[in-house]
Amino acid sequence: MEKLRFATIGTNFIVERFLEASLHIDEIKLSAVYSRSIENAQKLLKDSDEVKIYTDLNELATAEDIDFVYIASPTSLHMEHSIKMLEAGKHVICEKPMASNSREYYYMKEAAKKNNVVLFEAMRPLYHPSWKIIQEGISRIGRIHKASLSFCKYSSRYDNYKKGIIENAFRPELSNGAVMDIGIYCIEAMLSLFGKPQKINTYGYVIKNSIDAYGVIIASYENMICCLDYSKITNSEIPCEIQGEDATLYFDKIACPSKVWIEKTNGEEEVLFHKEIYG
Predict the structure, then answer these.
(1) Per-residue pLDDT, 278
(2) Are the beta carbons of 182 and 173 closer than 8 angstroms?
(3) Is 141 found in the same domain as 77?
(4) What pLDDT is stored for residue 47 in this prediction?
């Protein structure tokens, strides 16, 4: 079977993890990387001479030995990079969030349709082995009245921000606010589990360079409320929970759940998923 050949756009740690994971998939092969900096590309490849390095986006788009492209550039560049690849007939896996707004997503989606190629958002939790168990688990807890989905993680770049050193993670022009960077996990999880809410109320804290640092979203459904809590300047180990009349379902980490369990109203606990068991 001929392998699918892919390229990457971006050289950050997310790309490194993607490349590490790709080594476990026999059906795909890295053919090229794109970066504005040859040095960053070489560092990413660890001096491998079997992979092409592109510093010109147009040359990457017209390359004939690439079937799909993984895009992990800043969110503000997702539309430009994706459409260029889609219009060149290449499938695209785009990091979350796919676009800065719905208008950009519309143009990306239309480009994929027009060129008969796939546009796919890399929202990993929804494809994690635990997610199907979570979806099935909520059918066992009775009528659901409340859900709390949380992701609060202190950014490793925040210390520099407080010193006046503004890195990409805190630059609003790159669409890197807390709701786009962290809150998107909670939003996607809510939509996957419960669908579109009837009403939302949002509250956020904006730091001095006009970027949101943390926030809360309260989403109302018929006979149910879902609370989303996210932050990139504080930490929290509080698990996510979905409260039903017969039991409450918990999972520990929304970005990559390692444990899912149910606690019944009588105090009995049942583990549905554990990383040590499922691997």
Answers:
(1) 52
(2) no
(3) no
(4) 64
